[in-house]
């Protein structure tokens, strides 16, 4: 009986840790995507780059963030 209770307590602690880490990673990815999209908008507005925002470019920037913007910028100059 005590073994089951200890197992349940450890399982709950592990679940809480996994949920906290998941939300931390998702928050970091969301902030990176927002900063990347703002940077792409500013670069397009200033005329430094002429990268259209279509679905593929949007996904590259949303997943890659700032590095995704630099990748698209590099590819646009090729």
Explain what you see.
The chain is built from three helices and no strands. The radius of gyration is 20 Å and the shape is rod-shaped. The longest helix is centred in the first third of the chain and has 45 residues, at 2-46. It is 85% helix and 0% strand. With 78 residues, it is mainly alpha-helical. Helix 1 crosses helix 2, helix 1 runs parallel beside helix 3 and helix 2 packs across helix 3 (66-76). The model has no long low-confidence stretch (mean pLDDT 92).
What is the structure about, briefly put?
The chain has 78 residues and is an all-alpha fold.
What is the fold's blueprint, element by element?
Layout: H1 2-46, H2 55-64, H3 66-76
């Amino acid at each position: 009986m005590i073994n089951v209770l200890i197992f349940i307590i450890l399982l709950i602690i592990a679940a809480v840790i996994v949920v906290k880490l998941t939300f931390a990673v998702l928050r970091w990815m969301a902030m990176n995507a927002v900063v990347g999209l703002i940077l792409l908008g500013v670069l397009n507005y200033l005329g430094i780059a002429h990268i259209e925002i279509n679905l593929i470019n949007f996904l590259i920037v949303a997943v890659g963030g700032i590095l995704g913007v630099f990748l698209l910028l590099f590819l646009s100059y090729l």
